[in-house]
Amino acid sequence: MKDEGRPNGNMFLEKAQVLWNKKISSAYFKMGLKWSGSFYDAKPGQFVMLRIDNRIAPLLRRPFSIYRIIEGKKGVEILYRVVGECTGILSEIREGESVDILGPLGNGFSLPKKDVRVFIVAGGIGVAPLVFLSSYLVGEKGFAASSIKVFLGARSKDDLLCRDDFTSLGLEVAITTDDGSEGETCMVTNPVEAALKKTRPDVIYACGPSGMMKCLADMAENYGVTCQISMETVMACGFGVCLGCAVESKDESKYLHVCKDGPVFDSRDVRL
User: Which band of pLDDT confidence, cut at 50, 70 and 90, is reported for residue 53?
Assistant: First the structure.
């Protein structure tokens, strides 16, 4: 596969105007951020670090996957869940206010050549970078919708995110929820394995809970399929200075850092 991910070579720090901050469910929001144009070459899988201005808030920036490039490349959109103080304050920001943004950061997904079969597996809020990836494959790279299958899992119907983003691209979407409130009542890895037994893809792209990704990594190894995973972890700097986002490599002699070496990894390279 051709690697079109981009390292941390060209990152920019600026004030970004909030274009919208929409509540899409009880705990989830979408925020549009206008930028100066510095981020035009952001790739699927990369992320930004945000810090809130003019408010009493945690001093450190927080990482957010790029969910979407706003039409006309006028900015980026992030998808987030309110889980603590920082995201709680973030949810209160209004249109016209600004946030401090650093990015694009990290190495994105290695993109396949056209005319290969792709599985995309998302768990919960891990769907964000995979929406960007899907739209890039179909819209920018010209992939046929029939070559991509999406597996979307969540705890419940209320936590099921972005289905319309995938279906609007013409993609087939398999839905699972833990409580059975939507789709199949099972883990999202169940229909993935059933599909693997029928038709093996050339690559699996995934982001979600660690248990889900561990299961997918094992499946990929068993079926001889390449699997790329986007990892989520606590970060302080976002570009490899603080070394706080270390994960264990399969090579026991070293550690990898999610912000600098990732956040996207080949599942064979990290210990899950």
Answer: low
| Residue 170 neighbours by CB distance under 10 Å | 11
> How many angstroms from the chain centroid is the CA of residue 34?
20
Residue 72: exposed, middle, or buried by beta-carbon count in 10 A (0-12, 13-18, 19+)? exposed
> Per-domain residue ranges for the chain?
12-105, 118-266
Cα–Cα dist 20/106, whole Å: 25
Which numeric CATH code is attached to 12-105?
2.40.30.10
For Cα atoms 32, 110, 66, give the angle at the middle one, nearest 5 degrees. Answer: 10
User: What one-character-per-residue DSSP string does 168-218 give?
Assistant: TTT-EEEEEETTSSSSEES-THHHHHHHHHH---SEEEEES-HHHHHHHHH
pTM (two decimals): 0.92
Phi, then psi, of 81 in degrees rounded to 5: -115, 135
CB 267 within 8 A of CB 215: no
Residue 159: C-alpha distances to residues 35, 146, 168 (Å): 29, 26, 19
Beta bridge pairs of residue 23: 29
Classify domain 118-266 at the CATH class level.
Answer: alpha beta
For residue 112, the 8-state DSSP code is P
For residues 223-247, give the mean pLDDT. 86
Task: Give the distance between the most distant pair of CA atoms in the chain.
Answer: 54
Q: Which residue has the tokens 């790739």?
A: 43
Do 141 and 133 touch, CB atoms closer than 8 A? no
